[in-house]
Amino acid sequence: MSVKAFELWSVAEKVMIGERVRVKIESIEFRAKSLYLGTNESFVIEMKYNSITKRCEESLRFKYLGLKKPVVAIRVVCILERILCVCDSTLIVLNQNDLEVISYGNKLKNISVLCLNENPNNNNPFSVELCVARRKQLIVYNMTSEKIIAIKEISLPEFVLSLSMDGQYICVGTDSQYLIVDWDSGHIQDVCNCDSHIAVPVCKRITKHEFLISGPSALGLFVKNTGISERPPIQWSSDIVSIAYSHPYILCLTDSLVSIFSVVDQQLKQRISLTGGLYLDNFDGSVLIATTDSVYELRAIPWTKQLQMLLQLKKVKEALDLSHNWREAGLSQQNYNQILLDVKRDSAFIELSLKHFEEAKQLFVDSNADILELLDLYPDCFPSNLRLETRVKYFVNDFQFIIDNKSEDYNEYKVFLLEFLEELLVNRCQQYINRENEINSALICLYIENKDYYQNLLKLLTTSELKADINWVTENLQKSHNYHALAFYYSCNELNSPKALEIWTNLETKAIMDDNYPGLQCFANLL
């Protein structure tokens, strides 16, 4: 587990009707800042959600359905101002405004499961599509504020235990298997067997034409409407009772805890202890969990905070995956792009600290980071007058050995810097253009330190109109006794041709020494 993605908060505890009657929750729904609870004794309770305290302080009102049976499902259709309840295998419709029962004439009985179409086929905004299961039969209805009309009936080989609907497709969990039903054409596609250890097969719509089911061997399987899977499975436990999707996470509820997996890499990210969990769902962005007498909310940790936690743990891949696959609502594209660049920059420093040099190079380029932030870690490699006014803060403790110049790895890190700066020079990317003076100055210093790069040094020094710190270059060439290279620098850049001639004369008369001076032939070639 690598990140804290959610926190558990109480929304309503030990729910009661009035001051004495404690209820047992069987089902929940959350719409339009109202929490609806179905109880074991056929009560429907509405509680107002306080946006400031983020709690339901008290029950607003309730309706007794008179059946003394559990309300096993409750769904609110705000556009129709209707509440759909399944109690005693009967569909009961309430008016959302006053909780009074509304008669539709055709009473729907013997119902075991109910689901709404989250991606309806019809274009009428004032109607909804719903599917109910009656033993071994599926019935699709079109519902308006005045009537419910059956539009399709489909017979199945086994009793239906769970449903999830998307457009013309219904994912069905039966006694022993999962099916994908195209209710428009009537085609039935076998998917796989159910997990025999789970009492009620779990299926949930994830995205358009994609469902998540509890498959064999405690595997969560992503299934397309064609019956095939395009993502790797999730390895979860065999006692799953409910699941929810809150991008980019899959939340799985058992009797004792909530397990949170990433839909990106299918790995477990977090566990939260909670005893007695019955039902979990995402209600338009609010993830709620019901126990027998209380309701809790799983509130997402802010996206940027999750990213920082991952980076501090040096979980670079997970941070990059999260940054690319999720963004907070209301964040402008410009701000989002900047956060992506910041994550890549921080990731580059982390990869560098881990000596993952190729990954670090690519991330430095992708992040378009100011190259001075990297050079700041090598204070002896470029002029102090060119440094940042404010020291780099990104994971600088990991590089203290570089700054102190005491580590055995110091030379290895300098080779990385040299090769990276060379790539910027050759490719002449924007980072080089922005900091040409600083990069050239640092490269000259690095070439001087590494004799294997002497020809690279000469090539750079003889570049036409070379941009570099003149004082820094000449000082370092003199200190290192690279007089021949210094003469080339003076001559080719027309800085001081007489001085260049003087240096070569002194080299020839051995007044000064430079092991790299090739003799008069070089001087003749230059003329």
UniProtKB/TrEMBL annotation:
What biological process terms from GO does the record include? Answer: autophagy; endosomal vesicle fusion; protein transport
Q: Where in the cell is it found?
A: Cytoplasm
Q: Which InterPro entries match?
A: CNH_dom, Vam6/VPS39/TRAP1, WD40_repeat_dom_sf
- Signal peptide range equals none
Q: Name one GO cellular component term.
A: membrane
UniProt KW keywords: Cytoplasm, Protein transport, Transport
Against PROSITE patterns, the record matches this protein to: CNH
Q: In this protein, which residues make up the domain named CNH?
A: 22-287
Check the record and name the PANTHER family matching this protein: CNH DOMAIN CONTAINING, TRANSFORMING GROWTH FACTOR-BETA RECEPTOR-ASSOCIATED PROTEIN 1
Protein name per its UniProtKB record = CNH domain-containing protein
Record the organism. Answer: Medioppia subpectinata
